[in-house]
Fold each of these.
Amino acid sequence: QVQLVESGGGLVQAGGSLRLSCGASGSIFRIADMGWYRQAPGKQRELVAVITNGGSTTNYGDSVKGRFTISRDNAKNTVYLQMNSLKPEDTSVYYCNARVVFTRRDYWGQGTQVTVSS
């Protein structure tokens, strides 16, 4: 059984920062690429950032490049998303994703709300 549990969401003013965390139970963390996605009401889920299982490669959605940073600690089975210079348009539910490298199977967290006030 794989569980992903996000934390760190909340309300912040524009220009502020938040750090999201996603802890993974089970044995997949080290063989999974980890990612953050977000979905606002009425919109499709979109990629925020991904990091490969070894942590050597990252990729970001265009709207967050230069402001957000994804990282992982394989010893703690945790992936982080540092969000700086937040904008009201970053308001969304943020979901943690684990994609097992060998099977390409996806696992999702329950989501955490991030609200940025103007």
Amino acid sequence: QVQLAESGGGLVQAGGSLRLSCAASGSIRGMNTMAWYHQAPGKQRELVAVISDGGSANYADSVKGRFTISRDNAKNTVYLQMDSLQPEDTAVYYCNGVFRDGLRWRTYWGQGTQVTVSS
């Protein structure tokens, strides 16, 4: 089993910044694609950013130029630097990753961290 623990959420004013972290622990034999999703109240969970094991990143159009995803494979950690935050970025942010915990690759989710942006 692999556990994902997000941190770094909180309350920030519009225009501010936050940095989310997601640390993986447990029986990790390999770490592949990692991603951040968000879910606003009453809406479906949406992909925010994704990064491959080689470091290639892609972003939702709504966050391009404002958010940066990165990873530290030695620490089994993925980050999301969020700049120029807007009230519409308010959501619970979830970490997602593909790990090999034995012979199989599986997808894991974190519990989520709340990000609230005030106007």
